[in-house]
């Protein structure tokens, strides 16, 4: 394979990143469920990425052709895709390594349960599975797995996730209590 390098993506790179996304998703069938958006909607979505809020790393061949990318926002790896024609040359690993460098405290990602190659890729590079869902919260309605790279201090990372759950639990309890009070005020319980 040709030589390649990593660099931050710019706005002019986004159309080619949309094509990588489309090509990679198509090539991943049936491991990944089919996309729910037509290609023109995907292109519009990618062209609107907020490069001020997201960190987008691009892998490109030395002649300048993009062959992969990773998108990070906060402590989430939102996507990592490599053009299938460039797969197997270490590009995905290099993109994941740069995300680990960008987020040394750890990060999470979602991967479809059926995408065994991607799950193995991440597991072989130190990520662990945290939880599974029935897919009701994703557009494809396909079961998925939350994976995490625990970072330089795994205990602190996991405690942070536990604190998030505790905060959600408290918020739900507070909301429930408010609804019960409202019902009591109506005289119906």
Describe the overall structure.
The protein has 189 residues and is α+β, with helices and mostly antiparallel strands. The chain has two domains: 4-152, Aminopeptidase (3-Layer(aba) Sandwich), CATH 3.40.630; 153-189. The chain has five helices and seven strands, in the order βααβββαβαββα. The protein has helices at 14-27, 39-47, 91-102, 116-123, 154-186; strands at residues 4-8, 55-61, 66-73, 76-82, 107-112, 128-133, 144-149. The strands form two sheets. The protein has a four-stranded antiparallel beta sheet, with helices on both faces. A three-stranded antiparallel beta sheet has the order 5-7-6, with helices on one face. The protein is globular. The mean pLDDT is 94.
Throw out a few tags for this protein:
alpha+beta; 2 domains; 4-stranded antiparallel beta sheet; 189 residues; globular; Aminopeptidase
Number of strands: 7
What would you give as the CATH superfamily of the largest domain?
Gcn5-related N-acetyltransferase (GNAT)
Count up the domains. Answer: 2
For the biggest sheet, the summary is: 4 strands, antiparallel
- What integer is the average pLDDT? 94
Task: Point out poorly predicted stretches.
Answer: none
Number of helices: 5
Shape call: globular
What is the architecture of the largest domain at the second tier of CATH?
3-Layer(aba) Sandwich
Overall SS class? alpha+beta
State the end-to-end distance.
69 Å
Q: What is the ordering of alpha helices and beta strands? A: EHHEEEHEHEEH
- Looking at the structure, the CATH topology of the largest domain is Aminopeptidase
Q: What percent strand?
A: 15-25%
The Cα radius of gyration reads 20 Å
> Given this structure, which CATH class of the largest domain is correct?
Alpha Beta
- Adjacency order of strands in the biggest sheet: 1-2-3-4
**Helix content bin:** 40-55%
């Amino acid at each position: 394979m040709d030589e390649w390098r990593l660099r931050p993506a710019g706005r002019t790179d986004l159309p080619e990143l949309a094509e990588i996304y489309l090509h990679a998703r198509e090539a991943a069938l049936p491991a990944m469920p089919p996309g729910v958006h037509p290609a023109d909607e995907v292109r519009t979505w990618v062209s609107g990425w907020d490069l001020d809020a997201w960190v987008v790393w691009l892998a490109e061949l030395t002649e300048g052709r993009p062959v992969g990318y990773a998108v990070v926002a906060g402590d989430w790896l939102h996507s990592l895709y490599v053009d299938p024609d460039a797969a197997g040359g270490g590009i995905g690993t290099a993109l994941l390594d740069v995300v680990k460098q960008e987020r040394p405290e750890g990060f999470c990602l979602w991967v479809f349960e059926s995408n065994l190659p991607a799950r193995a890729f991440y597991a072989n590079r130190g990520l662990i599975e945290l939880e599974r869902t029935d897919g009701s919260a994703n557009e494809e309605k396909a079961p998925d797995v939350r994976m995490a790279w625990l970072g330089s201090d795994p205990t602190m990372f996991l405690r942070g996730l536990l604190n998030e759950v505790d905060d959600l639990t408290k918020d739900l309890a507070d909301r429930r209590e408010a609804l019960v009070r409202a019902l009591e005020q109506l005289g119906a319980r």
